[in-house]
Specification:
This protein is an all-alpha fold. The protein is built from ten helices and no strands. Helix 5 packs antiparallel against helix 7 and helix 5 runs antiparallel to helix 10. The chain starts with 18 loop residues before the first helix and ends with a helix.
Length: about 220
């Protein structure tokens, strides 16, 4: 299952449940998987969702099937929100700042989804390395969009512009990955008070790269 967007979640049989019951199952499972794949207990999931274990496995063939459904479900919530971003500026740094603002808004809107995805990435990569081999973060497509829309005239004349764009994107993804690693195991709410400081630090790195790569 290397294509994390290949599943049409709307055709999954759990989507036939009434919304309240469906959301209860999904949220209970996400909360439990935040502990990591191996530590997640389906008995606790069903207890918290007030359903039988038989019903859970009627909709999902096994624990892994449930885990990957939740990844698809999360990506289908997050990615369309990023794809709505206009990102019309040719200034790569302005677009990266806009992207950070969108990410912060979505984290506030979907805290459980983001908490689950951070845990899923770290534990899933260890448990299912083949399945996660080609996994790209939800931001990957948007990063590509930002890179291809960059205004080359803003860059210094004495540098390789495409290599410079690659470095900028790598540094941005590195900042995001490092932040996720540092906060792995914590609730989104635990570091919400630090959003302003995180944004400040991020903007500082972007301004430094602006001075390095721009005229």
């Amino acid at each position: 299952m290397k294509n994390f967007l290949s599943m049409d979640i709307n055709k999954h049989k759990i989507m036939s449940l009434d919304e309240e019951k469906r959301n209860r199952i999904i949220e209970s499972a996400m909360l439990e998987f935040k502990k990591g794949y191996r530590k997640a207990n389906t008995d606790i999931m069903t207890q918290n969702a007030s359903i039988s274990k038989g019903l859970l496995f009627h909709y999902f063939s096994n624990k892994k099937g449930l885990f990957f459904f939740l990844i698809h479900y999360s990506l289908n919530k997050i990615i369309p929100e990023y794809e709505k971003a206009a990102l019309q500026s040719g200034d790569i740094f302005s677009n990266l700042l806009e992207l950070a603002s969108i990410a912060q808004r979505l984290i506030t809107k979907y805290p459980l989804v983001y908490s689950f995805m951070i845990a899923a990435f770290f534990s899933g990569r260890d448990e299912f390395p083949d399945d996660f081999a080609d996994f790209n973060s939800p931001l990957e497509v948007v990063f590509q969009k930002i890179g291809t829309s960059a205004d080359y005239s803003l860059f210094r004349d004495d540098i390789d512009i495409q290599k410079s764009i690659d470095i900028i994107i790598w540094a941005t993804k590195g900042f995001s990955d490092n932040l996720s690693a540092q906060n792995h195991g914590y609730k989104i709410e635990d570091y919400e008070p630090y959003y302003h400081k995180i944004q400040e630090d991020y903007e500082g790195y972007l301004n430094l790269m602006r001075k390095i790569f721009y005229k």
